[in-house]
Specification:
single chain; mainly beta; Immunoglobulin-like; 6-stranded mixed beta sheet; 5-stranded antiparallel beta sheet; 1 helix
Amino acid sequence: MIAVLLVACGQPPGLDGKVVDIWGEPIEGATVRLAGHDEQPLTDREGRFRLPPFQGSREIKVGRMGFVQDRTEWVGDGRPGRGPVFELYPQPKDFGFYLVNSGAYGRLPPTPVDAIAGPLHTIAGLTSVGNVVADSRTMRVLMHTPLSVDEVARLDLELHRIEFIDRTEMLGPLGHVSATVQRWTAWQEVPTTLRPLRSRTDYLITTNGPLEPGHYALQTQGLLTSGGALTLPKELRVAFPFEVR
């Protein structure tokens, strides 16, 4: 295979595309692979690349160290013209959940989930919600994890809107009694979509619509909604909160 950097002048016309990160910044030195074509051009400092014209549908892959690779099926008509624009997610160094904000990730802090145990039921919640703020109501979270697809599915990942409860009524053997809670507890589940990206370690979590202002938390294993999940090892009893303004 031959890697060709697009710096030469007088190149023949071709299919011109571009590779940028998810914030629109060009990615230099990304490798572009066109199915059925031996040469693998590298993007220039503006993130641009050129492929030979082709007829029909072919797969185009792009990748660069430190980014999650991507691919697309592109239908060519045999003539030069405008090609695809790829937007690559930077791959975090550490495993965790990363809120996609304008120009940077906001790493969601793993926050301990504990519980107030009553005679007949348990209230689970967070004593802190951290200081990560989403600058868009359309949520995107990158999950960087060593888990397999099957293991991720078994996490039962959910997004919940949470609210702070100072005191509440808990049911006891003799009726309802007032109890101090002082925790952020699950209030309402928010539908999300989880899809794997073109790597073995990265998944994208998105909401199906804009979020209302307030506090939210990603939970696994029903930690905020099922007291039984508190039987997990302490290091796994965490949720991942953030705020939407």
